[in-house]
Design goal:
This protein is mainly α and about 140 residues long. It has one domain. The protein has seven helices and two strands. It holds the Pfam family SCO6045_C.
Length: about 140
Amino acid sequence: MSVHWGPDAAGPLAQRQAALVDALVAGGPAPPGFDAADLDATRRALLRKRAREAAAQWPLLAASYGDRWPSVFAEHRAGHGPVGALRDGWDVARAVTGLPPGAAAELAGREAAWRYDGRRSPRPRRWRRLLGRVRRGR
């Protein structure tokens, strides 16, 4: 018996699973056979979970909005697939106009220390890498 892995391994099942994931996290349409209200409730729950995770990476940003944080997060990240808590929060911070002072300072600190182009994972800026080497004695 041979086992095949990959996107075509399960044929229609893999396609249905991909459609469901797309509907839940990337704003895709509800796949046939799924209740739209149930999908919407699950989608909102997943966004709240992502908002909590982003708040752990961006505490000043989240605290700046208090109880409104989950809705601010959802406003900017709904329809976008998850890219990790750090990047999700970074994308929200960049998208919000008129950031509160604490959030603006947090974003400025990240922007000074890291390079992030919105597509790839953040990377330390060159001076930060060099400073790390100096501290390690290399």
